[in-house]
Amino acid sequence: MATTGTAGTGPTTQKPREEWTGQVGFIIAAIGSAVGLGNIWRFPGVAYENGGGAFLVPYLVALLTAGIPILFLDYAIGHRFRGSAPTAFRRIRTWLESLGWFQVMICFVIALYYTAVIAWAVSFFVFSFDLRWGDDPAGFFTGDYLQLADPGVSLEFVPSVLVPLVAVWVVTIAVLAAGVARGVQRANMVFLPLLVVAFLVLVVRSLFLEGAAEGLNALFTPDWAALGDANVWIAAYSQIFFSLSIAFGIMITYASYRKRRANLTTPGLVVAFSNSSFEILAGIGVFATLGFLAHEQGVGVGELEGISGPILSFVTFPAIVSQMPGGPFFGALFFGSLAMAGFTSLLSILQVVSAGFQEKFGWSPRQASVRLGVVSAVISVALFSTTTGLIALDTADQWANNIGIVASAVLMSVLVLWVLRRGPELRYHLNTVSTFRLGAWWQVLVAVLAPLVLGYMLVSRVVTLLVDGYEGYPGWYLALVGWGTVAFVVVAALVLAAMRWRRSPDDFVPWPPFPPGEAVQGAGRTPSAGGSAARRPAGTAGEEAR
Amino acid sequence: MSTAAVILLVLSIVVVWGGLLAAILRLRARPERTDLPSGGEDDHREDVAPVERDT
User: Disordered: where is this region (chain B) (predicted)?
Assistant: First the structure.
């Protein structure tokens, strides 16, 4: 790496920001982040239950009117203000820093249990080879493997979960410690192509199973009446929203590692459509396989149970693998894919946390990775490798996602676009650096439509959880693990925002200047007539070709 | 498979994967803006920046 002779930014030199090696590196990492467990185990079931083939309509509408616009909003904030969520929001307005920490803490909480699911997938990858679950996958998963107890707080550790969980943490810490380009990007460059190939093989194999056509028939037969049901539309918006990794700091953080003179919106389209393409692929693979199960059991696909979520992956799929010729290979592909999809998403979730602490406390990537990683690993192991791990995970996930992330999105839209009126500036930023230009419609979508739809989702979920509880778990438990998670995130965000910065992030001039034509001297903050600037022609694409 | 299911299967693939292909082609045709305003050059050193005392 050319690190010599680069002291071009004057005596008050700040460390240059870490960067992706180029456009491709960023796109691959962003796809790795977006393609996660939800693509594989959530989308197929949601599509099936909400109109089948007709779900394509609300799904595409949601993608174009909410998913992609909010993705662009994240990009604009992270790229213009060049920082992790707390830094970027603080540079918009000082008091907004707490929203950044709110997003960081959501990521922290999610990482704690996301790791556990990846650990399960790794275990089941190994179990595939000798079909360890035998004839009773359901009993094996909750009994033999997780040793599930009643809801409560248990300190009874389950070694079969604990060992892979610790291993996942060790690998994750090692990758994050290596930095953005050498760690996160490199890991994605390995695992994302591997994931795509493994999953393609799996899908092609599934298409040749007996009954595959029946499965696809069940998934794609349209129920047009569903389009008149508001809940179907909400399901589409929430699938898109959770699937794209938007509004909780990830895309802000990832965009902040792009060079300033970088295209944003067109790569964003590639990322968003890649994510949806993988979902369609997963829908085909999962339902072709479910068709085989229905065929084997002599029932209709509609009569099958456990067609989404962890149960699909860890109970239904093992059952199918056991009945299939060449099952161990198929199982290894499936659980390997699940682990890789989860791992690349986990890296992005933890990079949000790491970046936030690096910038606030002046830590290096390695310090942040090790310090935060060890603390997280201990909490994660204590909470999720015990006999009550599955219940804690299910509960924390419900609240962190449906309350935490959705609230984060609504707050971001309302505060940044309504209260602080930064929409025109952010649109100008995107349009100045990008090759896909956004009209005023973009502001309408992110400032009006998104908070309306997401606000409705948030309020209705809060009411449901307050009135009906969740999964029949005891009220005290939901208060502790569910609402307690939200309270923890809020309090931690306020405390972290109140702490002192090691080095103030406020000495920052966004580029390009807004309104255009003003503050030309701000644009020359890094010297444009000498130093590194003169050595690189403007707009060169050579950078990206690496 | 019913005709309707086949049509929607094909339509899903064409629209979503076609969207991906269109986005990739668009990006390849024009990877970056060439008319950016001046400034905004990064002190870019791939990954690990030099230590701060290295001035």
Answer: 33-55
Task: Tell me the torsion sign for CA atoms A118, A123, A124, A125.
Answer: positive
- Nearest to residue A180, comparing CAs of A338, A379, A22? A22
According to the model, what pLDDT value does residue A545 have?
Answer: 36
Q: How far apart are CA A129 and CA A347, in angstroms?
A: 27
Chain B nearest C-alpha distance from A328 (Å): 28
* DSSP letter assigned to residue A530: S
| Per-residue pLDDT tens digits for A421-473 | 999 999 999 999 999 999 999 999 999 999 999 999 999 999 999 999 999 99
pLDDT at A13: 52
The complex scores an ipTM of 0.89
Residue A357: Cβ-neighbour burial (10 angstroms; 0-12, 13-18, 19+): buried
User: Can you list the domains of chain A with their CATH numbers?
Assistant: 25-498 (1.20.1740)
Give the CA-trace dihedral at A360, A363, A364, A365, to 10 degrees: -70
- Which chain B residue shows the shortest CA-CA distance from A509? B40
Q: Does the pLDDT of residue A14 top 80, yes or no?
A: no
Average pLDDT score over residue span B25-36: 95
Taking the CA of residue A194 and the nearest CA in chain B, the distance in Å comes to: 19
Q: How far apart are CA A210 and CA A5, in angstroms?
A: 65
* Between A13 and A297, the higher pLDDT residue: A297
Chain segment A75-87, per-residue pLDDT in tens = 999 999 999 999 9
Mean pLDDT along residues A390-412:
95
CB atoms A2 and B55 under 8 Å: no
Contact list in A for residue B26 (CB cut-off 8 A) is: 266, 269, 435-436
DSSP state of A299: S
**Residue/partner pairs of A450-453 with CB below 8 Å, 24 or more apart:** A450/A66, A450/A69, A450/A70, A450/A409, A450/A413, A451/A409, A451/A410, A451/A413, A451/A414, A453/A66, A453/A234, A453/A237
Residue A203 has pLDDT above 60, yes or no: yes
Q: Are B11 and A56 a contacting pair at CB < 8 A? A: yes
Which among A433, A512, A544 is the nearest to B31, CB-wise?
A: A544
- Residue A60 to residue B27, Cβ atoms within 8 A: no
Q: What would the pLDDT profile of A484-522 be if each residue is shown by its tens digit? A: 999 999 999 999 999 999 999 999 999 999 998 765 444
Q: Where are the domains of chain B?
A: 1-30
A contact test, residue of B2, B27, B53 with most A CBs within 10 A: B27
Among A1, A539, A541, the residue with its CB nearest the CB of B46 is A1
Q: Indicate yes or no: pTM above 0.80.
A: yes
Q: Cβ A53–B9 below 8 Å, yes or no? A: yes
Residues of A in contact with B31 (CB under 8 A): 23, 263, 435, 541, 544
**Tokens standing for residue A99:** 């929203």
In 3D, which of A310, A104, A291 has the Cα closest to residue A213? Answer: A291
Pick B28 or A546 by higher pLDDT.
B28
Q: Give the distance between the most distant pair of CA atoms in chain A.
A: 76
From the list A462, A470, A479, the residue with the least C-alpha distance to A402 is A462
Chain B partners within 8 Å of A351 (Cβ): none
List beta partners, residue A386: A157
Supply A448's token pair.
Answer: 């009006």
Contact A523 B38 (CB under 8 A): yes
